[in-house]
Task: inverse folding
């Protein structure tokens, strides 16, 4: 599986003030340790750097992200992201500009998105966005 990790999961993974238990973090750890290829994009990196303060944290984030393959949106991604956003809006679903471009890049590259952001569930209901979900417990 090729995986795109959204800012919501990276934020949980990089927190230093509390240990967070989450099936999303468990999956991220196993993906990094295993055979999964983990992708990112500049928008996710920017969001993370804006949310953490201090030179040490900045350096740690940059060190981790330098090894990840970087997705770069092209012109077609922006056009399709606008279409995605407009289609969702016609169905009563509000989608932010950044979420639209992240979803579009995942669709184009056929990546599974790892996110805790429920806004992507709405996109998935209208487009071929693949979201990772924890196994349901019986």
Result:
């Amino acid at each position: 599986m090729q995986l795109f990790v959204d800012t919501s999961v990276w934020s949980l993974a990089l927190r230093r003030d509390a240990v967070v238990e989450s099936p999303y973090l468990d999956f991220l750890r196993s993906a990094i340790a295993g055979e999964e290829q983990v992708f990112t994009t500049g928008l996710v990196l920017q969001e993370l750097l804006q949310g953490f303060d201090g030179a040490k944290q900045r350096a740690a984030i940059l060190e981790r992200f330098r090894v990840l393959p970087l997705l770069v949106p092209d012109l077609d991604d922006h056009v399709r992201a606008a279409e995605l956003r407009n289609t969702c809006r016609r169905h009563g679903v509000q989608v932010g500009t950044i979420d639209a471009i992240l979803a579009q890049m995942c669709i184009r590259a056929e990546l599974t998105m790892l996110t805790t952001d429920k806004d992507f569930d709405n996109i998935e209901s209208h487009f071929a966005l693949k979201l990772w979900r924890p196994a349901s417990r019986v």
The first helix runs from residue 7 to 13. The longest strand covers residues 37-41. DSSP finds seven helices and five strands in the chain.
